[in-house]
Specification:
This protein is mostly beta strands. The protein has 2 domains: 88 residues, Immunoglobulin-like (Sandwich), CATH 2.60.40.1180; 270 residues, Beta-galactosidase, Chain A, domain 5 (Distorted Sandwich). The chain has 4 helices and 26 strands. Strands 14, 15, 16, 17, 18, 20, 21, 22 and 25 form a 9-stranded antiparallel sheet that branches. The protein has a 5-stranded antiparallel sheet with strand order 7-8-9-10-11, with no helix packed on it. Strand 23 and strand 24 form a beta hairpin. The longest helix has 21 residues. The two termini are 43 Å apart.
Amino acid sequence: MNTIKILSYLVIVSFLFSCSQDKKTTIITVKNTLNFERTSEVVEINKTTLHTKNISSNIGIKNIETGELQITQLVDLDGDGTMDQLLFQPKIAGNSEVKFELVNITDAEKPKAEELCYSRFVPERTDDYTWENNKVAFRVYGPVAQKMIEDNVPGGTLSSGVDAWLKRVEYPIINKWYKKYTEKTGTYHEDTGEGLDNFHVGKSRGVGGIAVKVDDTYYFSKNYTKWRTITTGPLRTSFYLEYESWNAAGNKITESKTISLDLGNNLSKFATNIKGTNTISAGLTLHEKDGQVTGNNKSGWVSYWEPHADSEIGTAIIADKNTFNGFEKYDVEAADLSNAYAHLNVINNKVIYYAGFAWKKSKQFETKQAWINYLNTFSKQINHPLAISVK
C-alpha cells in the first residue's frame, strides 16, 4: 500500500508540474523615464528575445491591468517567410511603466486596424518608390527615371533627394493619386481636398537625402538601383534601398538604407549603411530661399520653415546626441543645390537619422513654434527610448 501511495503521489506531482509548465507566461514591461505621455513609439520584440524560430500569427499582447488586447504587427525582416519581429504601440504615461502579457488568441479575437502605414514600388509611374502613414507621404526615384534623363527622354528624374507628398487626410492616398495619373482622371499636382504634390526636389536633397562634404563641396549619389518592401501594416511600413557606388572627390562611397515610417509620426527613420566616409550630411532643400533655417545642437535637429504656395511648410532632420554633429546653411547660386545640412557621424559604417515635414494646411502643426516643440519632444524620445524588458 505504501508503494502504491508513493507512486500515486508522484503521478499527481508530475501532473501539477506539467500544468504549471503549460501555463508559463511571458511578461513585457515597458517603462517611460520621461515626464510626459508617449503614444507614437513602436515597441519591437524580436524572436531571439522570445527564444523562438518563428513568431506565431496567433500571438497577442494584452495589457495586464486593463485586459485590453493591443494592435500588433508581425515583420519578416529578411524575407525568408518566418516572422522575426512583433510590433505594438503602447500608451505609457510619464514616469511610469506598464506590463503586458503574451497570450494566444484566435483570428476573431485580434483587434482590427486599418493598414495606414503603406509603401510600394510604382512601376506605372516610371519606377518611383512611395511610402505614407496617417500624417505624411514621401517618394524617391529609381534607375529607369535616371536613364530617361541620361537618354534625353522626357518625364525622367535624376535625383537621390526625397520628395514630400503633402497630404491632409488620415486615410491612404498613394494608390488613389497614382490611379488619377494612370487613368488620366485627374492629377496629384492639384489639391481637390486631400492634398497634393507640389514640392520641388530636382537635384536638391529634398527632405533628408544625403551627401558627403569634401572641403567646401557636397557630393551625392544618383537614383536608387534596388528596392525591397519589408513590411506594411497598421503600425509601420519599411523598405530597403540600394545605390550604385558613387564618387566623393576620389572617395568611393557605397550606400544602402532601410527606411521606415511609424503610425502617427511626421518623421521617417533612415537607417543607412555607408562605407568610404566617417561623416555624412543629410539635407533639406531651401527652395526659393525665403524661409528660415533654425537648429538646436543640444537637441540634435535642423529645420527649415518656409512659405509654400498658399500655405507654409516645415522640414527637419533629427538624430541622437552621438550622431548629430552640427548643422549648416549651404547657400549657392546653382539651381537646387542650396540646402540646410545636418552633419552626422558614421559609427561602424552606420548612421541613423530621422527626416520629415509638417504642412500647415494639414492642420497638424499650424505654427513654426508648434513644429519646433514637436522636434524637441522627438529628440527627448530618441535620446531616452522606452525601456523594454521581457521575462
